[in-house]
Specification:
Elements: H1 2-15, H2 29-34, H3 39-60, H4 63-78, H5 81-93, H6 99-107, H7 113-131, H8 136-154, H9 175-193, H10 196-208, H11 210-218, H12 223-248, H13 253-273
């Protein structure tokens, strides 16, 4: 139990800016790559914080400000870690250079034109997706979970192209750890959308293997690619939910339960009156 708590706290401290002021003792490589199991849990914590900010701000200001402050809260909690990865990945891929040169560009701390465009569109799509969603609070909660689930999935049997770096544990993650990560993501989607959650999960999980196809051709998944995968998974979740809601009438399980409870309360009230 202590080992699992240690791995969770290591993952939380690594993936966020949330201070973990606990002496974790000796950290082994096994602790790091088995900590991938807790990626969706870290996503849940981030989602709860973002959702709390959204709800609190929306009590005082119009909801559009709640969305903006929730997005800002996420950037502060993660240190814009994954957004930076998306920017670096876009700069590297669209440089159309050799593999070695692409890796050099991705490691460069300066932001290029392609990286800036990718960041702007990523943030714009997130804002628009949340704004046009009928279940804004739920989407804000689920987005980080989806992103972390995809991150945990794409590292399985991947190749890390550098000798050292923050993504050095790519490819060392066991199948059992990946399965656990995926199951946690599936549970979250099913709890939110019932049977529709399986379809949403399947789309996200399918998307998780696009970087794997890419790495087979270009031989490498870096920490930046993992960050890009997280950001794009969040956007994809928003778009998929909006499309399904519009064309299938899909409603979240929590919303359906709330409506059912209200209907029961109204019926009981009517019976008492008559």
């Amino acid at each position: 139990m202590k080992t699992q708590i240690k791995r969770f706290l290591l993952t939380l401290g690594f993936m966020t800016r949330i201070p973990v002021n606990v002496d974790l003792g000796e950290v082994k490589d096994e602790d790091m790559h088995k900590g991938f199991l807790y990626y969706p849990v870290v996503g849940l914590i981030l989602g709860l914080c973002d959702m709390a900010v959204f709800l609190l701000v929306s009590l005082i200001l119009p909801e559009v400000f709640g969305i903006l402050f929730a997005m800002l809260a996420n950037l502060c909690l993660t240190g814009a870690f994954h957004l930076d990865g998306l920017s670096d990945t876009a700069d590297g891929i669209y440089s159309a250079r050799t593999r070695e040169r692409m890796l050099e560009i991705m490691k460069d701390s300066r932001i290029g034109t392609n990286g800036a465009v990718a960041m702007c569109f990523d943030l714009a799509l997130k804002f628009a997706g949340i704004y046009y969603s009928d279940i804004r609070w739920l989407m804000i909660l689920l987005m980080p979970i989806a992103g972390k689930m995809v991150q945990g999935a794409i590292v399985y049997k991947a190749i890390y192209p550098r000798e050292k770096g923050i993504g050095i544990y790519v490819g060392t993650v066991s199948l059992g750890t990946v399965i656990g990560t995926v199951i946690l993501g599936l549970v979250a989607m099913v709890l939110a959308f019932s049977c529709w959650g399986v379809l949403i999960f399947a789309i996200l999980f399918g998307f998780a293997y696009l970087p794997c196809i890419y790495h087979k051709e270009n031989r490498g998944i870096t920490g930046d690619v993992m960050g890009a995968g997280s950001e794009l998974a969040e956007v994809l979740l928003l778009l998929v939910v909006i499309v399904l809601t519009k064309y299938t009438g899909m409603t979240p399980l929590s919303y359906s339960i709330l409506v059912l409870k209200l209907e029961i309360m109204m019926r009981e009230s009517c019976r008492k009156n008559y």
